[in-house]
Amino acid sequence: MSRIYKILPAADWDAARSSGRYEGSAVDRQDGFIHFSTAAQAQETARRHFAGQAGLVVLEIEADDLGAGLRWEPSRGGQLFPHLHGGLDVSHVRGVTEAPLGPDGTPRVGALS
What separation in angstroms does the CA of 81 have from each of 15, 43, 53, 103? Predict the structure, then answer.
């Protein structure tokens, strides 16, 4: 089993919990899939896409729970990243953690396992 992670604003997570489904960020919807990261990829994802933002959470999902909609596709530097083609049912979220900001303004997600 491998865990994957999604960083997003807490307000987006609150809306997803209310509806029972997360359809992704504007970028996710534009790309046609929800972007996730492995634990090893999450810190760089945070630095590149969420620097200086407050009010973030990190969703923890078991990759195997997502079935055939989850595809491992090349992205940054040819690394394989988990992409969910379709919406995320909130029942698949195993944990939610606030993403505290480090001194440089980036979320500290390096402790993910």
Answer: 25, 13, 23, 27
Q: Is the dihedral of CA 6, 33, 84, 82 positive or negative?
A: negative
Total domain count for the chain?
1
User: Quick one: the chain helix, strand, coil %, rounded to 5?
Assistant: 35, 35, 30
Residue pLDDT, tens place only, 79-111: 999 999 999 999 999 999 887 655 554 555 554
Residue 105 lies in a domain: no
Question: Domain of 33: which CATH number?
Answer: 3.20.170.20
Any domain includes 111: no
Domain of 44? 3-98
Residue-wise pLDDT for 14-44, tens only, equals 999 999 999 999 999 999 999 999 998 988 8
Tokens linked to 12: 């987006």
Rounded Cα distance between 12 and 103, Å, is 24
The residue type found at 100 is: P
